[in-house]
Amino acid sequence: MRFPALRPFFVATPFLLALTLFAQDTRTVTEPHIPAACVTLQARIAAVHGVIPVADEQSLDTARIQNAIDNCAPGKAVVLRNNGARNVFLIGPINLRSNVTLFVAAKTALVASRNPRVFDVAPGSCGILATHFGPGCKPLITADNVENSGIMGAGSIDGRGGATLLGQNVTWWQLAHAAKVKDESQHVFRLVTVTHARNFTMYDITLRNSPATHVGVADTDGFTAWGVKIMTPGTARNTDGIDPHSSRNITIEHCFIHAGDDDVAVGSSHGEPASNISILHNHFYSGHGMSIGSPTSGGINHMLVDDLTIDGAQNGIRIKSDPSRGGFVHDIAYRNVCIRTSPTRWSSRRTTLRTPAICCPSTPASR
Fold first, then answer.
1. pLDDT recorded at residue 303
2. In CATH, what number is assigned to the domain containing residue 289?
3. Res. 9 pLDDT band, cuts 50 70 90
4. Were 161 and a residue from 147, 183, 209, 310 both cysteine, which residue would form a disulfide, CB within 3.0 to 4.6 Å?
5. Beta partners for 150?
6. Measured in Å, how far apart are the chain's first and last C-alpha atoms?
7. Residue 69 in contact with residue 78, Cβ under 8 Å?
8. What does the alpha-carbon distance between residue 138 and residue 140 come to, in Å, rounded to a whole number?
């Protein structure tokens, strides 16, 4: 069902087709393919009933995975695979390289360490509350200044946001809730950050329980998330699904997102617009729905949202900003959006616009 026009973000119906011809990713995006392996690493840790034994919590696989990535031939993949009951790779921060794909096989989990010290930007900076905003933790996976890189596979990447930190009696998510109460900043890590990249691809992977945003994309030209599943409780504060920021040629397609904040949020910084964005054939569940903003100071333009089901999110469609960091948002099209059991259908600048219930056919929780 199409929504009624909400100016200035929509054009009249006769011009909708013409708009959507260019209000999207300028690339031709098809289902990604999986590269051949340069090396296959086997898991060493067995998670019994999903729990990593305490004795294995210091047995990190960071160095051997990083070494494999650094020495992989261009155009190939580092494959992580279970070895019978041994199905977990336990890591701290790793960095992806150009022309190399990280592939997590089915029945295999890449799992974040519970030790905040391995994520420190400065000594003691991660896993704390602070009065200043800014990065205190390195992301679990960083893709910075890379080309033709990606993360693929039917396995999972787990940030363990609800697990107690080593040496502390608090979880990552509890830090986030305490920060809200105290009006402070939680220094916790993102699961994946992609910055200054070209043609980065995420395919078929499941992301779970990030302490903060699952996938942050910034200053990037060419990003594809295809068949990605994000599975995190709606109560986990600030756990956005996928956030493209000041980036171009973005496609998010066939994804299933359960999050604790924006399922997808498109934003921009001053002088750096977000443009040519396609958000197609997706399902959102818990979270704050499909958002633009709140920072839009660089402008956002030529974005198409088509065939989106939002089922049970706190919000439906949001365009959020304020005078201190607002910018020009134009040539945005929404088509075939279904919203069910969401208390807020539309919101813009803190003003809620209610519509009659918009019913959707029953949809699965994941693919």
1. 97
2. 2.160.20.10
3. very low
4. 209
5. 101, 201
6. 23
7. yes
8. 7
Number of domains in the chain: 1
Write out the residue range of the structural domain in which residue 61 sits.
Answer: 13-351
DSSP 278: E
Residue 7 belongs to some domain of the structure? no
Residue 356 is assigned to a structural domain of this protein: no
Nearest to 68 by CA among 42, 39, 92: 39
Q: How far is CA 139 from the centre of its chain?
A: 12
Q: How far is CA 33 from CA 75, 136, 151, 156, 204, in A?
A: 11, 35, 11, 18, 10
Q: What is the pLDDT of residues 215-252, one digit of tens each?
A: 999 999 999 999 999 999 999 999 999 999 999 999 99
Residue 237 lies in a domain: yes
Pairing of strands 264-268, 242-245: parallel
Residue 257 lies in a domain: yes
Strands (E), 156-240: 156-158, 185-187, 192-195, 198-203, 206-208, 215-218, 221-226, 229-231
Residue with tokens 């945003």: 213
